[in-house]
């Protein structure tokens, strides 16, 4: 079975030249795995928090759980930008279905979903590709049960490249810090590069970084060997990924322009690391606070020389573990009775970013552009990785691939249509 094949990078659906690919892989070759921990979940007790001071926007709900409050000012900006928000009723885990902390409950496709249609979608996805164009795995969770799990030569126990789905995982880490009142995303980021109050970047907030609206100069192009994204992904970025981006000048006033940036996610990751400890303490904290409660036994990380994880591109998990992460967000940040993310954080994750021109982006999560699915949000990664969360259908769809085409998105969208009839 295939185990983490050499990734093939693309720009505008065209294969990169070998020299560009080599520059990226040079920085990816020393990724390390965390030690495999017990599959028994170590749950994190949520201590009640109060207040909205400099250490966070958390408060204590009526049931004693942590609550994240979206400022009215941000809600007004979204409305004034002509963007629409969609109320979502996040489905709870059915009482008759065990949480998949240790093992998934497996079930047949539910009634209302045509099995022949689903099998045809997967068969089509797994065939027809050429070299470097492979759909590796497709999983579907419905009602908390694993109803579809198929692999195209991929070892189910092997960790798959996350690419930019790591951004959504890093965002969850920020949510945990908000839960514990250790960060306030609406306050300026703690960046040494713009600590001077006279610096025009000084007031860039974590929220603006999460929403790709910092105003920092950036070009997310895979076609330029000396460009920004290949620099932070490759050997040259290993010294200090976040510092590379944070030293960039402004190309626009903060919170006025949407600019998708892998480097921005690295700054967010550094914010987390500066609070929990960089290097080995960071890795241990991620495992204890995010992955252990979900039953995820470890991840492949890639730390730079400052001890910052590759927050925008490289937190690799097994296929079933990506599904667990999606289920956490489908369940509004709750796992087996423990609130991992503060109440309101998932709503914040999918709140449209005012600077995004077509309501396509939230806070390190993408929003589905099809008006038939206004409540759907998804984590997206280069070369066709996705975790799609469908609250109305109580469904999570995971597609993992190494593809230069749109076959992954066609498979994902076809599966969404196949499960659409399950809307609650």
Structure characteristics:
alpha+beta; 424 residues; disordered N terminus
Q: How would you sum up this structure, described in words?
A:
The protein is of the alpha+beta class and 424 residues long. Helices cover 29% and strands 13% of the residues. The chain is built from twelve helices and 14 strands. The chain has helices at 18-28, 72-80, 115-126, 165-179, 206-210, 228-233, 241-246, 262-276, 280-294, 319-330, 345-349, 407-419; strands spanning 10-11, 14-15, 32-33, 58-60, 66-68, 134-142, 145-151, 300-301, 334-335, 338-339, 366-367, 377-381, 385-390, 395-402. The strands form five sheets. Strands 7-6-14-13-12-11 form a six-stranded antiparallel sheet, with helices on both faces. It has a two-stranded antiparallel ribbon with strand order 1-2. Helix 3 runs antiparallel to helix 12 and helix 4 runs parallel beside helix 8. The longest helix has 15 residues, at 165-179. The chain is globular and about 60 Å long. The two termini are 38 Å apart. Mean pLDDT is 87; it is low at 1-23 and 25-56.
Main sheet makeup = 6 strands, antiparallel
How much strand content do the residues show? 5-15%
Spans of at least 5 consecutive residues whose pLDDT stays below 50 are 1-23, 25-56
Q: In DSSP terms, counting alpha (H) and pi (I) runs of 4 or more, how many helices?
A: 12
Helix content: 25-40%
Order of helices and strands: EEHEEEHHEEHHHHHHEHEEHEEEEH
Shape, per Cα inertia axes:
globular
Major beta sheet, strand line-up:
7-6-14-13-12-11
Q: Give the C-alpha Rg.
A: 20 Å
Look at the helices and sheets and give the structural class.
alpha+beta
Distance between the termini: 38 Å
Number of strands: 14
Mean pLDDT: 87
């Amino acid at each position: 079975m295939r185990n983490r094949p050499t990734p093939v990078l693309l720009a505008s659906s065209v294969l990169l030249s070998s020299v560009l690919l080599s520059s990226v892989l040079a920085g990816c070759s020393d990724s390390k795995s965390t030690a495999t921990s017990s599959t028994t979940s170590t749950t994190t007790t949520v201590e009640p928090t109060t207040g909205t001071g400099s250490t966070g926007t958390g408060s204590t709900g009526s049931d004693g759980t942590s609550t994240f409050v979206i400022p009215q000012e941000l809600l007004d900006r979204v409305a004034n930008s002509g963007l629409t928000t969609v109320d979502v009723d996040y489905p709870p885990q059915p009482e008759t279905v065990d949480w998949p902390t240790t093992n998934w409950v497996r079930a047949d496709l539910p009634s209302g979903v045509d099995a022949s249609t689903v099998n045809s979608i997967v068969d089509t996805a797994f065939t027809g590709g050429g070299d470097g164009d492979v759909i590796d795995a497709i999983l579907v969770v419905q009602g908390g049960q694993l109803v579809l799990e198929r692999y195209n030569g991929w070892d189910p126990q092997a960790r798959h490249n996350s690419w930019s789905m790591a951004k959504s995982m890093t965002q969850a880490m920020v949510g945990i810090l908000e839960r514990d009142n250790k960060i306030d995303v609406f306050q300026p980021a703690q960046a040494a590069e713009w600590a001077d109050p006279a610096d025009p970047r000084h007031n860039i907030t974590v929220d603006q970084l999460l929403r790709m609206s910092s105003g920092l100069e950036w070009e997310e192009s895979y076609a330029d060997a000396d460009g920004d994204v290949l620099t932070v992904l490759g050997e040259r970025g290993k010294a200090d990924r976040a510092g590379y981006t944070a030293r960039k000048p402004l190309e626009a006033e903060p919170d006025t322009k949407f600019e998708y940036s892998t480097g921005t996610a690295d700054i967010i990751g550094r914010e987390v690391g500066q609070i929990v400890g960089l290097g080995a303490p960071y890795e241990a904290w991620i495992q204890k606070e995010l992955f252990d409660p979900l039953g995820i036994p470890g991840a492949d990380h890639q730390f730079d020389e400052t001890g910052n994880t590759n927050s925008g591109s490289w937190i690799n998990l097994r296929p079933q573990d990506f599904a667990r992460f999606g289920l956490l967000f489908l369940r509004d940040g709750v796992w087996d009775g423990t609130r991992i993310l503060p109440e309101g954080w998932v709503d914040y994750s999918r709140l449209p970013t005012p600077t995004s021109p077509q309501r396509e982006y939230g806070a390190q999560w993408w929003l589905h552009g099809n008006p038939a699915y206004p409540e759907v949000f998804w984590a997206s990664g280069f070369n066709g990785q996705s975790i799609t969360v469908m609250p109305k259908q109580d469904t999570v769809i995971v597609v993992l691939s190494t593809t230069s085409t749109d076959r992954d998105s066609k498979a994902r969208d076809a599966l969404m249509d196949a499960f659409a009839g399950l809307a609650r």
